[in-house]
Amino acid sequence: MENLKNKVAVIFAASGQIAGAVARSFAQHGAKVYVTATNLSAVKTLAEEIKAGGGQAEAGKVDAMNETEIDTYLQKVVADNGKLDMVFNGIGTYYRDAGSGTPTTMATFEQFLNPLQRICGSQFLTSRAAAKYMIQSGSAGTLLLFNASMARTKTPNMAGFAAACAAIEGLTRVLAAEFGKHGIKAICICSGALLETKKISGMINDFSENLGITREEMTLQYKKFDLLKSGPTLKQVGETAAFLVSDNGVVFNSHIVDVDCGKINLL
Hints:
The chain is α/β, with parallel strands linked by helices. The protein folds into two domains: 8-192 and 234-258, NAD(P)-binding Rossmann-like Domain (Rossmann fold); 199-231, no CATH class. It has eight helices and seven strands, in the order βαβαβαβαβαβαααβ. It has helices at 17-28, 40-52, 67-81, 109-137, 159-179, 198-211, 215-223, 234-244, and strands at residues 8-12, 32-37, 56-61, 86-89, 142-148, 185-191, 256-259. It has a seven-stranded parallel β-sheet with strand order 3-2-1-4-5-6-7, with helices on both faces. β2, α2 and β3 form a beta-alpha-beta unit. α3 packs parallel to α4. The longest helix has 29 residues, at 109-137. The two termini are 34 Å apart.
């Protein structure tokens, strides 16, 4: 099914597992995908994988925290294609840098600000640059933002990360209200913990060691609020993203779309 045929997509921080999954799904549904990251080798490998599977992909080196690099790259994409249909930014942060797992009374101000500047700040930079070029080229595109369910859960010792995730949700609604008159929609895909990713696996190992419990016991802590026995997978996140940026996905605009298979503790 090629519901993204002839669409042009730019994926930022595509060296990460989640953004990589989104890029693969976009390409499988027919989009021409530009995959970017600071790690050029990683996105070149991803682009070659996509092309080997019959998709269209190009790799580029872009720092999703550098406004000039973002702007220059998007300008090139629009110059080459005449349009920009969707952007996705999968940027994350190392949990220790964000003070995750550290009591609020002990976390430093720098740790609190880290996810706000890195995660929310990068979403701001890539979204507004993309909107500018969508407006200039007359593209009725989609700004697909990304955050984690920490925005609406009551979890201790996660002040900076939770604040950043909540800020991204607020940013999504502002962007939708501001750019809707240009036919541009803004959506935030909100993922639950993806146990197959290296980031979550590493956190489970570290937290279990810090708490003096087994890895299995720590994993159960992640699963205890699940409504279903299975949680979300990378492929499901990618497929959900592909639907949201499709023509049928227009029914979701300004919305925060949870991809977690249902959680008891999510507001």
